[in-house]
Amino acid sequence: MPLPGHLLPILVLLLAGSPGWAWVPNHCRIPSQAMCNFVCDCGDCLDEAQCGYHGASPALGTPFTCDFELDPCGWRDISTSGYSWLRDRAGAALEGPGPRSDHTLGTDLGWYMAVGTHRGKETATAALRSPTLREAAPSCKLRLWYHTASGDVAELRLELTHGAETLTLWQSTGPWGPGWQELAVTAGRIQGDFRVTFSATRNATHRGTVALDDLEFWDCGLPTPQASCPLGHHHCQNKACVELQQLCDGEDNCGDLSDEDPRTCGQHTATDFETDLGLWSRSEGWARNHSAGSPDHPAWPCRDHSRNSAQGSFLVSVAEPGNLAALSSPELQASGASSCSLVFYYYLHGSEAGCLQLFLQTLGSSTPQAPVLLRRRRGELGTTWVRDRVDIQSAHPFQILLAGQTGPGGVVGLDDLILSEHCRPVLEVSTPQPLPPGPRVPVLGSLPPSSRLQDFCQQGHLACGDLCVPPEQLCDFEQQCAGGEDEQACGTTDFESPEAGGWEDASVGRLQWQRLSAQESQGAGAAATGHFLSLQRAWEQLGTEARVLTPMLGPSGPSCELHLAYHLQSQPREVSCNFERDTCSWYPGHLSDAHWRRVESHGPEHDHTTGQGYFMLLDPTDPLARGHSAHLLSRPQVPAVSTECLSFWYYLYGPQIGTLRLAMRREGEDTHLWSRSGTHGNRWHQAWATLSHQPGSQAPYQLLFEGLRDGYHGTMALDDVAVRPGPCWAPDYCSFEDSDCGFSPGGQSLWRRQANASGHTAWGPPADHTTETAQGHYMVVDTSPDALPWGQTASLTSKEHRPLAQSACLTFWYHGSLLSPGALQVHLEEGRRHQVLSLSAHEGLAWQLGSVEVQAEQAWRVVFEAVGTGVAHSYVALDDLLLQDGPCPQPGSCDFESGLCGWSHRAWPGLGGYSWDWGGGAAPSRYLQPPVDHTLGTEAGHFAFFETGVLGPGGRAAWLRSEPLPATPASCLRFWYHMGFPEHFYKGELRVLLRSAQGQLAVWGTGGHRRHQWLEAQVEVASAKEFQIVFEATLGSQPALGPIGLDDVEYLAGQHCQQPAPSLGDTATPVSVPAVVGGALLFLMLLVLLGLGGRRWLQKRRSCPFQSNTEATAPGFDNILFNAASVTSDP
Fold first, then answer.
1. In terms of domains, do 163 and 273 share one?
2. What does residue 10 show for φ and ψ, rounded to 5 degrees?
3. Is the same domain home to 966 and 850?
4. What's the number of domains the chain is made of?
5. DSSP string for 829-871
6. pTM for the whole structure
7. To 5 degrees, how large is the angle CA 83–CA 87–CA 92?
8. CA 773, 690, 771 angle in degrees (round to 5)?
9. Residues 6 or more apart from 508 whose CB is under 8 A from it?
10. Are residues 881 and 921 in the same domain?
């Protein structure tokens, strides 16, 4: 039973107020603890909408993002002074110290959060706080972009409040560089609710201008429950799935701590340094400490890893820079054939010279063994705890040595050392033993591993012969030692030596670089010997990038070059894309403030793939763009074959839509492949373009879609781009603007593609048919006797067209010279050639429309043949070939079910650049249009229409023009029109014009309010010259919102209009224009005489005033100019 409307608000309040449950607007009822937890529990992700995320459920690996373009995403200012945050954009202020553009769009129309210039003299802090967030995963990271300048603020700080504790994730007092700066911090595992606060502090000497944009939470959601887990995964108690390597690693990956359950991890030996060092022994260089109350050191960890708290403890190196801090394990033995694994977390921050090394010291052998380096990490890794793991297989007892060395201003930290169940302490060793006196931990620094320092050189110097080379002269491209020892292991290598030229892996993500042999590699090429660096899976949990570094080099000169050989085993990102998950290899250009954007289907804007998915959209009003064009480019691609076919679906809709172009860019040069101009109706269209490459060429290329706008009324869209090997079928439409569309001239190649832009072409029409300008292109053949003797033919053959499921109409426009140009014959080839049309190329100034019906169950071609007549300076030209389903319409007639037929909606110069459109009631439209057509009387039908609301005052108009029609003494134009305007306003006007060489004549017009239904009109047409019929939509005096529709236009050549059958509506008999004018004048004179006579009669009778309680209605010419037509309503 449906719920009464008055009870719905009460139910909403009850659900919102019920403990433990939350209600979101899409009727998705979820537990309150599932709100704002970085997991889309509702299908449209509305449960995360109040937490800084807008959109559908993100694909795997995409962040929860707030770009402030729509609203503050739940972030709010909590400042206590006038120095505060607000949502702002650069375009709101013409000058000032703030950013000139936002970070998201890169324009002055984009939005961000900002703190304006503060006029106070006291110290003040502006704080911006996030909404309440819940349950962050161990891998949770926060990235943001901030904008300030040195001298603007005293301090920037990012804090996380969890319960009663506030952690400082990042703080800086500068200096800061110009422009937008990126900040990335790790939040780590957080149970329960938390908030993030970004604050800026200023004092009397600072202006205080700061901006914040593009906040992103990466990998923060916990895994969701699953019915079953994939192979190699562990099923948690809460039904989530985690990888086996995440068990017993000191992190709550399941979300309920079941992956760290003592029943599973009881045999592991974990040391978290909360109370002591456990089984580990240390040298003087390490100290157990915690962040709370720690020395004021900017590089010091703000929290430990075990508890993610400032109260937690960890080890930190307190040795002087250049000195070692060593930590050793007890004597261990790997059990059986299994590996002993050590998981540990380290912290390297504040100095590029900081370094942590892990050695294996083998014990119990007859000869002392030098420590073996298993892992080295150095440099600046940020303010985060990084996970690593080593697996040890040894037949002898061993110790693990961790050696840290700090650089100036830096710190090295350790936490959570976890030995696996296969690491068995040697039984007779009950207490940690000191290291054997023989082996010595190598001296760390920037020296190559093979270097051995002599006693007379200072620590960190290299001894070669009688020289001690200081560190700053190592790897400086200047040889100091006679044997070149100071320039060894400085980056130059073929990776055959184990030192690998000094290259070291510096990855902290899920990938790492390793030196491998060809035998160890899988699928790395045909090489069977040798070594190289290879990308392998790593144990770290942060990020996806992998880094490998040389030792510190330099200085270098301006001509320094790096040469390397690389092999990419995976394929490049695909050009083929349906844009459902991301943009694949496509990205927007940034040469203009107009940009292509990946958007979700919404209202009248829907994708082609599913009708509810994603597509690429160019809307010059969102945001308002000043640039004339926008580019969408593919990543560089290497040709797979010499010929490829690119197919895609495009959408061009609106009265000022402009042009969409496709080009191929190779070595900086663009080759135009395809283009469409003007509105193509409220629907998706498919197009194809053949990509041709040199055989065997590996030269990369890019594909480029360019949208060129004519105004702001209209949108362009792209979807379902696909590339396949081989050529495309012949296109359904060819304008010859970008190419010859695969047409091949036969024989002497007399046909050619040309334009008359210079005005000096030897032959051909002065303008093409597509653009109606001298810059437009067409195909033309010289039929003069010198080029084509009398009776001979010149052929132009298309590529193969795809087989047809039903009959189709092939239309084309042709043009002949004033002198006899000869004949134009049309042939179809489907196994054999047969002639389907023969035309005498028309003598005149206008392009003529030709058409043939095509039925082909197999692949077919069309062949145009020009026949020479022996007349000098003659030619035949072709333009605008179009293949459409259905039979060919009669000249000047159209039911608009398949398109506009031979009617042209191209914007006419001087009328404002507006176009009629084509559409139907079934598809949602951003423009007003009739709800049904006249042909079918349903939403499935189609019609031509124009929305007058886009016009401004002043008489601007839009034309819909027929093909050129032959002169006629009397013909009838019959059509149905629809004018859907509201009451009591002066509305748009619809007129019928005749255009010929003699000028322009208005023969019919109507305006004012009409009923919201289809009305029939008939117009007598006569012209002594070839002419065009023009439907003109315009305004009378003021803007008005409302559509004007046309349907079922029928031109009856040589026939008079017949009087329609009587109906309840108004009727009129067709008459000539003079008769209409004369009748109207006579009628007005009679009214004047009757009025005067009636007044005199009333005066004589001195009767009462005239009274009437009915209102007479009669047909008339109100708001109809030269209406030589009959009008009936649609029954």
1. no
2. -65, -40
3. no
4. 5
5. EESEEEEEEEEE--BSSS-EEEEEEE--SS-BEEEEEEE--S-
6. 0.52
7. 100
8. 10
9. 381, 384, 386, 540, 542, 543
10. no
User: Do residue 961 and residue 847 come from a single domain?
Assistant: no
Q: Please report the pLDDT score of residue 1112 as a whole number.
A: 33
Assess contact for 600 and 56: CB atoms under 8 A: yes
Tell me whether residue 450 is in a domain: no
Q: What CA–CA distance (Å, rounded) separates 1047 from 1051?
A: 12
Q: Which two tokens stand for residue 935?
A: 């042909």
Please report the sign of the dihedral spanned by the C-alpha atoms of residue 546, residue 551, residue 556, residue 561. Answer: negative
What's the CATH code of the domain at 982? 2.60.120.200
User: Other C-beta atoms within 10 Å of 181: how many?
Assistant: 15
Task: Tell which phi-psi region holds residue 473, choosing left (phi > 0), alpha (psi between -120 and 50) or beta.
Answer: alpha
Give tens-digit pLDDT for 1001-1010.
889 988 765 5
Structural domain for 985, as ranges: 914-1052
Q: Does residue 413 sit in helix, strand or coil?
A: strand
For the stretch 936-993, pLDDT in tens is: 888 878 888 887 776 765 447 888 888 888 889 999 999 999 887 655 555 668 889 9
Using CB atoms within 10 A of its CB, is residue 580 exposed (0-12), middle (13-18) or buried (19+)? middle
Per-residue pLDDT tens over the stretch 282-313:
767 888 887 665 556 777 888 899 988 888 89
- Range 530-542 average pLDDT: 76
Cβ contacts of 199 within 8 Å, gap of 6 or more: 125, 126, 127, 128, 156, 157, 158, 159
pLDDT at 1077: 42
Q: Does the CA dihedral 599-602-603-606 come out positive or negative?
A: positive
> If you ran DSSP here, which 8-state letter would residue 607 be given?
-
Chain segment 322-360, per-residue pLDDT in tens: 778 889 998 888 876 678 899 999 999 888 888 899 999
Question: Residues 897, 885: contact at Cβ < 8 Å?
Answer: no
1070 part of a folded domain: no
CB atoms inside a 10 Å sphere around CB 415? 25
Count Cβ atoms within 10 A of the Cβ of residue 438 and give its class: 0-12 exposed, 13-18 middle, 19 or more buried. Answer: exposed
CB under 8 Å to 61, separation ≥6 — which residues?
A: none
> Encoding tokens for residue 974?
């019959």
**Residue 682 within any structural domain of the chain:** yes
Nearest CA to 628 out of 716, 717, 715, 708 is that of: 708
Q: What is the DSSP letter of 801?
A: B
Give 154-170 as a DSSP string.
SEEEEEEEETTEEEEEE
Question: Do 769 and 813 form a contact (C-beta atoms < 8 A)?
Answer: yes
pLDDT single digits (tens) 153-198: 888 999 999 888 898 888 888 788 778 888 988 888 999 999 999 9
- Please compute the mean of the pLDDT values over residues 16-45 and round it to a whole number: 61
Q: What is the pLDDT of residues 1037-1065, one digit of tens each?
A: 555 567 888 999 999 988 899 876 544 33
Place of tokens 């990490």: 377
Q: Please name the helix (run of DSSP H) or strand (run of DSSP E) that holds residue 1075, with its range, or none.
A: helix 1073-1101
> 640, 571 in Cβ contact below 8 A?
no
305 is a domain residue? yes
Residue where a domain terminates, one of 1009, 1032, 1052: 1052
Segment (H or E) for 586: strand 586-588
Residue 1081 structure tokens: 């004048």
Q: Report the half-sphere exposure of 347 (CA within 13 A, side-chain side).
A: 24
Determine the Cα–Cα distance for residues 809 and 854; give it in Å rounded to an integer: 6
Domain boundary among 401, 425, 449: 425
